[in-house]
Description:
Layout: H1 19-30, E1 35-36, H2 41-44, E2 49-50, H3 64-79, E3 86-90, H4 93-102, E4 107-112, E5 124-126, E6 145-148, H5 155-168, E7 175-181, H6 185-192, E8 195-196, E9 211-215
Parallel strand pairs: 3-4, 3-6, 4-5, 6-7
Antiparallel strand pairs: 1-2, 7-9, 8-9
Helix pairs in contact: 3-4, 5-6
Amino acid sequence: MELNNGNCDSDDDTPRLSSEAMAALREFLSQQTQTHVGADADAASSAVSLVSEDWRLSQFWYDPQTAETVSKEVLTLCDSSDSLVRVACVACPTLYAYLKKIDPNVSLQLLEYDKRFEQYGSDFTFYDYNQPEELPPELKHAFQVVVADPPYLSKECLEKVAQTISFLARPGESFLLLLTGEVQRERAAELLGMHPCCFRPQHSNKLGNEFRLFTNYDPGTRLGGWDK
């Protein structure tokens, strides 16, 4: 879960933190500093640098294994085409940063509410899921790969993010990846024709919710295959 625009009416839709993460939150609120994506000190030296998580915006960065696994899958999809593949990262700045680290030449667009990521220049587009199609017209149907991480676990949020995905994706020829809670399994299938993979995403600060990675294509043996 990567961002929150502060307009959620129900606490039930917000990702729940474990007791360990709650302790970390208290420390965070008293001492906000720049940090690195990474689960431990050994990984920090090779981890991608991001702004600090703002948990008041419900920001939770992926752990390195998750970010690298999803990045490699996206790059595999890019390599499967003979032409330039454009990738949209919807509310998942961790993935954007790791993709740029692994392959600086990949064509990426980050759609994100947090304007701290304006540091990425023309790769950044401001995005508020409450206005799912209020985006630059040149982004419409411009992407062969779209990865999205909705900010809430509500039906309403996923429906709006699905509108954004449909706006961005090339009709009939796009690979779609969705990172969200297990509770969205039926909605992901209904709205986007997506199925869960066996690979389980994790966050650097452990969340109490069970998260899944859904795709609209059969990944074969990658990502552990579809969880049937």
